[in-house]
Write a structure and sequence with these properties.
alpha+beta
Length: about 100
């Protein structure tokens, strides 16, 4: 699957800058939605997290973060079985593999 360059923008967004209603809406509308992806759940199980966001919250990939010395790294927090990429159902329908 390839997307036109002008319609595909992935941004790294810190927790403080995430639009929670759009983010949780994307998680809620995804076919593969799991509780581990919701903002309120991530807020309760890890101190710091960020997100990769496609365009205007068409798809999201949460990134739980930790710091070791001067490096930030992604980790799997306690009480989280898996980290998931979620795309809204409208994004999935527009960009299906044929």
């Amino acid at each position: 699957m390839s997307l036109p360059n002008d319609t595909c923008q992935i941004n790294f967004v810190s927790r403080q800058e995430i639009d929670t209603s759009k983010y949780d809406g994307c998680i809620d509308n995804a076919k593969n939605s799991l509780i581990y992806g919701f903002s309120w759940y991530l807020d309760s199980v890890c101190e710091n997290w960020a997100c990769l966001i496609l365009n205007d919250y068409e798809a999201v990939f949460p990134l739980p973060l930790r710091r070791k010395s001067i490096f930030d790294y992604v980790f799997l927090p306690p009480w989280v079985q898996q980290s998931i990429y979620c795309a809204s159902s409208s994004f999935n329908q527009k960009n299906r593999l044929h």
